[in-house]
Amino acid sequence: VGVVFSLARFSEAFLILRAQDVGVPVAYAPLVMVVMSAVYAVVAAPAGGLSDRLDRRLVLLTALVVLVAADAALALLPTVAGVFAGVTLWGLHMGLSQGVLSALVADAAPESLRGTAFGVFNLASGLALLAASVTAGELWSAYGPRATFLAGGGFALATAILLFLLVRRRSAAAQSSSGIP
């Protein structure tokens, strides 16, 4: 799921390109990353605390829904305000997802293999991010920014559906093994 999630998240450089596309002057382009990073920083610790109390996959599912909203804003609101709304949502999704993904890797790996698990996860995620960014660039060149962000939103939605089905299946299995009808 984490690797499929990475397919939905192409490089943040596309956020800057989108800002420039709607008229943000080049001198203000770093503001895009500042806004995204500030939201990410504010949200990350509370999201981590939330994932310690709730099922981490539900927090990750929320992050995916937020990513779909970010991509929709970036695709469908071709204004400076629309781009900054999308960038803010992108930062929110980052804050909700990055620590949780790491925690899920740590939860799933035996203690003696955690370093290897993180290495494999980061390698696979990095390759998926590379593929997603190349695809995003091709879509941008061929069809424009709207297609790029709609495709990202489509991957995020597909990942959310996959994660929802996994959570639902695991909940059903837990209920049947505990004798709950």
Structure in words:
The two termini are 29 Å apart. 86% of the residues lie in helices and 0% in strands. The chain has helices at residues 2-8, 13-21, 29-53, 56-76, 80-108, 114-143, 145-178. By secondary structure, the protein is mostly helical.
How far apart are the first and last residues' alpha carbons, in Å?
29 Å
Number-wise, the strands total: 0
Shape: globular
Percent of residues in beta strands?
under 5%
* Spatial extent as radius of gyration: 17 Å
Structural class: mainly alpha
The chain-level mean pLDDT equals 93
- State the helicity in percent bands: over 70%
The ordered string of helix (H) and strand (E) elements is HHHHHHH
**How many distinct helices?**
7
Task: List the uncertain runs.
Answer: none
Sheet with the most strands, sense and barrel status: none
Give a nutshell description of this structure.
The chain has 181 residues and is mainly α. It has 7 helices and no strands.
List the helices and strands and how they pair.
Elements: H1 2-8, H2 13-21, H3 29-53, H4 56-76, H5 80-108, H6 114-143, H7 145-178
Key terms:
globular; 181 residues; 7 helices; mainly alpha
